[in-house]
Fold this sequence. Notes:
This protein is mainly β. The protein folds into two domains: 4-100, Beta Barrel (Elongation Factor Tu (Ef-tu), domain 3); 104-177, PRC-barrel domain (SH3 type barrels, Roll), CATH 2.30.30. The chain contains three helices and twelve strands. The chain has helices at residues 74-78, 95-101, 172-177, and strands at 7-16, 23-27, 40-45, 48-60, 63-68, 84-88, 111-114, 120-129, 134-140, 143-148, 154-158, 163-166. The longest helix has 7 residues, at 95-101.
Amino acid sequence: xxxxxxxxxxxxxxxxxxxxxxxxxxxxxxxxxxxxxxxxxxxxxxxxxxxxxxxxxxxxxxxxxxxxxxxxxxxxxxxxxxxxxxxxxxxxxxxxxxxxxxxxxxxxxxxxxxxxxxxxxxxxxxxxxxxxxxxxxxxxxxxxxxxxxxxxxxxxxxxxxxxxxxxxxxxxxxxxxx
Length: 178
């Protein structure tokens, strides 16, 4: 039986996609580079991790199409709707170290400052995870501002003071909030 200690959620099953058991899923942005190495995922059933072996994974717009071995009917796939997808992080070289560095979910509640002016932009309300990117949802005077989380835009983080600094394209803030 797989120990849950090393399991990490890397995605979610959205819905059945075909009559032959394929699933529409999304993965955390940090895990996408590891998809080609996956032989199986774990799904929790009755609080126990059960392995599901991968037959095929392929991009499907902003999501992925995932086909498990032995899931050959829409009804079987439908039963997995909403399930979180887990992996054993020790099976992927470098993944443990990557996850130890910083979890973007820690940014919720951080104050966001403009790198150039050092002015407060707003507070991180949520982190949105998409297959190709992660976004900070920042509340600015009651409006929602979305900022990519990458090395170019998120230029500094101070975990102790719960502050971060971003480099936004010229006019982005004004355009997005108008």
